[in-house]
Design brief:
4 strands, 31% strand, globular
């Protein structure tokens, strides 16, 4: 079964307030076994455009990735993030080839 991933590109307008989101999302991520692959490290855009921060999170399956996103725990954290950032988030199945 392929892994599931969240791939997010985010611009943060208020880093101090965003920190509250990061603390709150830890509850959902622990519950659903999330593993950070990329967490806002240095990035170099070679083609197109990207937001200031890239995050890649691995889950045991796409179903678990979706369940985490839909969970009350993550939605509570997301409510803290939405007013202070903008971004794109895709849930994608890993390659099982």
């Amino acid at each position: 079964m392929p892994k599931g991933y969240w791939v997010a590109h985010v611009d943060v307008r208020d880093p101090a307030a965003y920190e509250a989101y990061r603390q709150a999302n830890a509850v959902a991520f622990a519950k659903y076994g999330a593993r950070f692959i990329v967490r806002g490290g240095a990035q170099e855009v070679r083609e197109g455009a990207a937001k200031g921060r890239t995050v890649v999170i691995e889950f045991d399956s796409p179903e678990v990735a979706r369940a985490c996103y839909d969970s009350p725990e993550y939605q509570a954290a997301k409510a803290l993030r939405d007013p202070v950032s903008s971004g794109d988030l895709v849930i994608v199945a890993g390659w099982d080839g």
